[in-house]
Queue: 2 jobs
Job 1
Amino acid sequence: MEVGPLGELFKMKFACVELLTKSGGIWRPTPERPNYLCDQRREIDVNSFGCWASALEGEHIPLSWFVTGKKGRPARQKATLFERGVHKAKKILFKENLSYRNLEYVKQFDVVLVCHHESAHWEMLHFLKKAKAISPTTLFLATYGAYQLGRVRELWRNPRWYRSFMEFIETSDLFLIVNRAAQDYFQLVTHKPIVYFPPFYPYDYTRRFFRQREDKEKTIFVAGNTERVDILAGLLRARDFQRRHPEYLIKLTDWGKMNLEPLRRCRYEILSRIPWQKYLEETSRALFILNTDIWWTNGRVPLDAAAVGTPCIGCNANGQKECFPDLVCADIEGTAKALELAERLLNDAPFYEATQKKALSQLEGYSYENSRKRFETLVTEIREGKFSEKRGSFETVLEMSVS
């Protein structure tokens, strides 16, 4: 089990604060129930920042705990019309100020990671300011949450949102990003160091789902919701591949309202939303995965693909570029390359196996153990005042542990 004590030389109390949690309350890991063995709809994320709290034996806390001291609305439940009205009224009446009943709870932590929220940016900024004031010895790291860099770029067009986001970065002690491509982009607007810190991934658990090439089935998997840009390109390329190789079945997950017109007259199967472990088993059987989402995501799809030994053909997701660099297509104009890559994966066994090996090696660098070591190094450098003196020092540690 990967959730274990931190090294003897470095111990900390860690918390991750987000606007909402899956349970509505505080989640804490146990050795028997790390995040990846919990219900991902009602308890904690399999990926994202649930991994941080699990690997660091910390707490995943909703903002409501500090505001009311009580359990709040679970993330899976949409806010009611009344709740949205109250939220809007508070912004007007209190001029974007919150009152807290339980803010002193933050004092017990050595390190707190505060996650920005796209639709509640002022709440998270206000919390970060107040928490820093009441607990000056705590190290407050910040990140822009689980939404994509592509979404941030859209929201930046709103001057008020932009100012709030920049203030959020400046208020933190250090700003972390989970997509390497975002580093230079965010550094344009701040002198505060922007640190690329890839997500914690339960590598030691997922490697049991790895499947060799000779054990693959005649299926291909198309990832993503067709409401996202540009998943339809993946469907079209899957259609083209099936026309060449009609024995291969196309599979994709049912995301609700989907545009399946590109698959008209194709042979395909729609899978229901299944638990993560079942998803790993399903995708491990596929010859390859198509993931043509061009929104600069963190890249959970290619990370899971690396774990199960299924090459992923994709675009600019972070996990894609790091685990499957030889299978990257350049945005929408480059998706013709996807079909060429698919043919090579089908016909070139040494290339296929080398791709599997490279991806799994990269993924090991994201394991809980390696991520804990990186995090310890980062926090130690900040505490000792070394990080600000040599910004590149942490990046060197990162490259060493991932390579």
Job 2
Amino acid sequence: MAVTEKPKVCLVSCSVLKQEIQQLIKEGSLGVEVVYVSKFFHIDYAAVENNLRKVIEHTKKRFKGKIVLVYGDLCLGQDYEMKKLAKEYGVVKIDALNCVDCQLGGKGKFNEADPEHNLMFMGPGMIGFFRHAKTQMLKEGADEETFANMFSGIKGMVILDTCGDAEKCRKDLEDSGIGLKVLETRKIGLENVKRVILDAINRANGIT
């Protein structure tokens, strides 16, 4: 019987990219272990940091290989706190500003795609995040107008079709209650996410 080699890399990833990572693993493009941290913590930076620290510390104790952080530079705040956290724990992180930047290819492609910052890029994971955020806000006493104000100044949404399910994304957006017009769908596939993660894995393994 062939012995299956254990992955030498463990991704600690926000679950906003879970669908993309699972598909890459399924097709054999990523041979990694993955620990997901709930995207729903992203309503609160402190909750993200608290839970992420717990996951990293637990993973470092049990996993003997390299750990790669699949979070954007700005996912803990605008002063690159995520980079500082990665350095504190001695782990490599992906070279991306946020999850959308990762989906677009990393290295600041997000700013090139939306220089005026008036678009909402929506991949599969982000749609679920905002639907959950609205439900939570309404439970806590906010009204529809308060939720709508989160998107003031936004011209419309761009669907990022990473997993080949653009129509499902469009339907989920209609059901989300965000209320913004879908301006276009970009069929970008999984190559960008794969390239950004593999780049981080190579750096973790000392390959440049």
